[in-house]
Amino acid sequence: MQANVGTMDRVLRVVLGVLLIGLAATQVIGLWGYIGVVPLVTGLFRFCPAYSLFGFNTCPMKKSQAPSP
Q1: CA distances (Å), 24 to each of 35, 40, 55, 65, in order?
Q2: Cα 64 off chain centre by
Q3: How many CB atoms lie within 10 A of CB 52?
Q4: Domain range enclosing 11
Q5: Within a domain: residue 67?
Q6: Domain total for the chain?
Q7: pLDDT at residue 67 tops 70
Q8: 37-45 and 7-25 helices cross at what angle (nearest 10)?
């Protein structure tokens, strides 16, 4: 598993996941709020299977990984 979730994307996923789980736990929203586990886990592991499936990558390339001319 190669990381494909960048820093800003990662922060947003974790915040959204925690927010949804918190709202579901306090019964502000229904049980569907526990779907927040998905963005939380993908943010923590820096890997999103959907990004791999569609070829997205929000991680910046390191200089050692830059394509040579």
Answers
A1: 9, 14, 32, 41
A2: 24
A3: 13
A4: 7-56
A5: no
A6: 1
A7: no
A8: 150
